Amino acid sequence: MSAQDKPSTEDFSSALTPQQINVFRAIYITIAAGVLIFGAVVVMIARVKAPDAAPPTESAHQLIELL
User: Fold this and answer.
1) pTM (2 d.p.)
2) Rg of the chain's alpha carbons, rounded to an integer?
């Protein structure tokens, strides 16, 4: 493999600008935060609807028995 076959760093320098990387990072963080908030809301709703639910270990054993 000669030196001409190797891609130079100049070929990849314009792939993503730092501004684009920051935008993608912001979108990723926003989506991750949304998923966490959605999960917390689901848990809160589940606790409100079933306040006297069985402890998680018993529920897990029941699910395993059903399978």
Assistant:
1) 0.50
2) 25
